[in-house]
Design a protein that fits this description.
The protein has one domain (about 1-244): TIM Barrel (Alpha-Beta Barrel), CATH 3.20.20. The protein is built from 10 helices and 8 strands. The chain has helices at about 15, 35-40, 60-70, 90-100, 120-130, 140-145, 150-155, 170-180, 190-195, 225-244, and strands at about 1-5, 20-25, 45-50, 75-80, 110-115, 135-140, 165, 185. The chain has an 8-stranded parallel β-sheet with strand order 1-8-7-6-5-4-3-2. Strand 3 (about 45-50), helix 3 and strand 4 form a beta-alpha-beta unit. Helix 4 runs parallel beside helix 5 and helix 9 (about 190-195) runs antiparallel to helix 10 (about 225-244). The relative contact order is 0.16.
Length: about 240
Amino acid sequence: MKYMPILPIGMSHLFDICRVTDAFILPQFWGETDYREMYTKRSWQTVIIDNAMYENPDPVPTDELIKIAKTLNAHRIFIVAPEDHSDPIHTAEFARDMYERKYKPGCGWLPMTIVHGDLPEIHVMSDLLDPLPDMGFGIAVSTWRNGLSRPRIKEMFSPYHYFHAMGLDSIPELSTLSRAGFNSVDSSMVATAAVNKIHLDENTEIIRTGSPTDPKRVPLLQDSFEIMCSELTERNIDKMSRWI
């Protein structure tokens, strides 16, 4: 399983130092030159381009995500389909529509949908999307937060798909995801922990409750950090690889 660290502009050098080969792109920042060049000036194995729905009320249009994909030098690129946070079945319908209308084998990118909801809803998502051979599945961190096992959810789909763990709150969950055969996981945890002076060896979870007391996410457009903060992030990336 590959770890895709979400890093701020001021720590982009860590992609090279830590030999990171896989990337998770947040398209809402693509208009910022320094953010964009973090990804266009490097080569990648696998890239996942998110739809920005976690941060924004509306997804970035698929056609815009396709334009981003065309600027990248990557062996494999996934584009996340639109989703409906309140209706997993609607999310599946969005993904199937994207697959049928936008995707063609060999077009330079692959489709991915976000799996969320309760188990009966996820069963329906599987029925609708599992037969599509090139569909990737990102299993949302919200399922883990709601007490569901992401490896158990993965078992509801055919094993030949690409499986990504969308977001991460818990270091201990890493080993279960890896053993279950997930291909990748993304998280800003390594940098967020560093800027909040959280030691991941001792505090193995950074849980989002929506409270003002939650640790502040690392500001991704910040272009400079103290050397000690960058060095701690570098050590955290190395720890993630070892924990996986």
